[in-house]
Design a protein that fits this description.
Elements: E1 5-9, E2 16-20, H1 21-35, H2 43-50, H3 54-66, E3 70-72, E4 79-81, H4 83-95, H5 97-113, E5 116-123, E6 126-133, E7 148-150, H6 155-162, H7 166-174, H8 188-201, E8 203-207, E9 214-222, E10 228-237, H9 246-264
Antiparallel strand pairs: 1-2, 3-4, 5-6, 5-10, 6-7, 8-9, 9-10
Helix pairs in contact: 1-2, 1-3, 2-3, 5-9, 6-8
Length: 270
């Protein structure tokens, strides 16, 4: 299919930025599939969600399927994300120093704690999970590799927000803060108080603030600059990860964080 070209002037740049509309549409389809149900979405539903015609949607999906970016279920005629995306995402994860440094410890930590372990980095106003270690607990949660969540809604995000610069924190708290559960904290002063406590104690918590039934505890990971570049988090069901059991999780979390920091050349903690 021949795509149209949208030419717009780049802000603060005399050169023009050329955007290929068909590529934009293809990305829209991938994002719609990613946000959809696990068993995939059909052509009609994808067309409706993206605002594309069925013919355009069909042609784009054929192209994406040929490049293994989507998979088509022959029985249901629905589309899911393909393995090529996983392979590309794996290469991105491998290019991040902190992800490489942490990988050997994530599954080991999950086995030791019996809960899922998340490694997250800050991407603007969100935490993005770049890797994960899983225990055989049978517990499922929304957070998975590649997913992003707003910083104020979870332990990983609050840990990273606490170590952001003052100007960023001020701007973040000045904007409306979205709520996801009755426990989500959206009052700026309460969050500011929590951030100060996180900087003092060295860890952050989340008690069902992003997802009902899910609690988490996070510690920071520093690199050779001494700055906090990632959050290492244990996450599990509210019945197991509780305020009374924090020491049971903090001890192995902190030990693993120190090992990762050694690989990143972090200076000794003061």
């Amino acid at each position: 299919m021949k795509g149209t070209v949208d030419v717009t002037a780049g802000e603060g740049d005399a050169r023009s930025t050329r955007r290929v509309q068909s590529v934009d549409h293809a990305v829209d389809l991938l994002e719609a599939i990613a946000a959809g149900p696990a068993d995939g979405l059909g052509v009609s539903e994808l067309a409706r969600q993206t605002g594309l015609s069925k013919a355009t949607t069909h042609h784009l999906l054929i192209t994406l399927e040929s490049r293994r970016l989507v998979l088509r279920d022959a029985h249901s005629a629905t589309y899911r994300l393909g393995w090529a995306l996983h392979e590309l995402g794996t290469l991105v994860s491998q290019s991040v120093d902190v992800a490489r440094a942490a990988r050997p410890f994530l599954d080991e930590l999950a086995l030791e704690t019996g809960e899922s372990i998340l490694l997250g980095v800050r991407v603007d106003r969100t935490v993005q999970y770049v890797d994960r270690g899983d225990a055989r607990s049978g517990f499922t949660m929304q957070a998975t590799t590649g997913m992003r969540s707003l910083l104020h809604t979870n332990a990983s995000g609050k840990l990273l927000l606490a170590h952001a610069d003052d100007e960023f924190i001020k701007g973040y708290l000045a904007d409306p803060l979205e709520s996801f559960t009755p426990q989500t904290i959206t009052e700026p002063q309460r969050i500011a108080d929590q951030l100060a406590e996180i900087r003092d104690t060295g860890f952050a918590t989340c008690w069902q603030e992003r997802e009902r039934g899910l609690c988490s505890i996070a510690v920071g990971v520093r690199d050779f600059t001494g700055g906090t570049v990632a959050a290492l988090t244990v996450a599990g069901p509210a019945g197991r990860v509780t305020p009374d059991d924090m020491d049971r999780y903090l001890v192995p979390l902190r030990a693993a964080a120190r090992q990762i920091e050694n690989r990143l050349g972090a200076p000794a903690a003061g």
